[in-house]
Amino acid sequence: MTSEAVRLERVEPELALVTLNRPERLNAIDDAFVAGLHDALSELEQDGDLRAVVLTGAGRGFCAGADLKATPALATRRPDALYAGQQRLAELSVRLHELPVPVIAAVNGPAAGGGFALAAACDLRVAAPAAHFSAANVRIGISGGEMGLSWLLPQALGRARAAELLLTGRRLPAVEALAWGFVSRVADDAVAEAFGLARQIAGNPPFGVRLTKEMLRSTATAATLREAVLLENRTQVLAALTGDIDAAMQDFRAGGLDGRTD
Asked: Quick check: helix, strand or coil at residue 124?
């Protein structure tokens, strides 16, 4: 699928690349962007052969947040229309977060506001050295917590660091994001690095990967260790019944896995 604002490509048989494609505006969010990304997510959700997705931006930016030049004066809009638009925008983060397969953000440049939220909604993040993140909305008089950031950032960084970023709106450079654990890697070619991770994921049995992603999402809000373990126990039994583990154990016994754990 290709639209002007968002491109979806099947780069390899089991891997897809989604490119935010408004480079002249640092891939800022407008109506076409929202519609295009919703369409891409709908296609990905229906793809039974898919194993992993890489999300990146065209040009020198990942996503600069809302395109303020394309946004009408918010104070003049009806509250119900404004709320409906905000719901449709925020649903992008939810759908990314709940996509059945892992999504890796290849953050090639600035990720601000809604762009920060889209990166945070992904399962893994790889950043280029020039990338940086900011919850910039607080600096223009609206809440820094939009599109799930007030939930996603504390999950990823802890409450204190999330509060610092959301309340100050300051930039989080790639190197600091790595030190804080928000990104797992910094690489000159973030897309290539992200696809390296995607291939490792795609090499694992798909149902186990899907259940692992679901567990990471579900246990994040478990009240106790016991609740998390109960969920894990049920998931392990369900996964064992697929038969994937039998084939993997046969490969292991035959030396196909070479006794490796990496």
From this structure: strand
Q: Which of 43-57, 139-153, 188-202 has the lowest mean pLDDT?
A: 139-153
| DSSP 8-state symbol, 63 | B
DSSP codes, 11-49: EETTEEEEEE--GGGTT-B-HHHHHHHHHHHHHHHT-TT
**In a 10 Å sphere around its CB, with 0-12 CB exposed, 13-18 middle and 19+ buried, how is residue 72 labelled?**
exposed
Provide the strand spans (E) within 48-108: 52-57, 103-107
* CA distances (Å), origin 212, targets 81, 109, 226: 38, 29, 18
- Terminal-to-terminal C-alpha distance of the chain: 35
Is 0.70 surpassed by the pTM of this model?
yes
Measured CA to CA, the distance from residue 39 to residue 258 in angstroms comes to: 42
**Cα-trace Rg, the chain:** 19
Would you say 97 and 217 are in contact if contact means Cβ atoms under 8 Å apart? yes
The token pair that represents 88 in the structure block:
């449709």
Structure tokens at 206: 């798909």
Pairing of strands 110-112, 185-186: unpaired
- Distance between CA atoms of 92 and 231, rounded to whole angstroms? 27
pLDDT tens for each residue of 63-106: 999 887 776 555 567 788 888 888 999 999 999 999 999 999 99
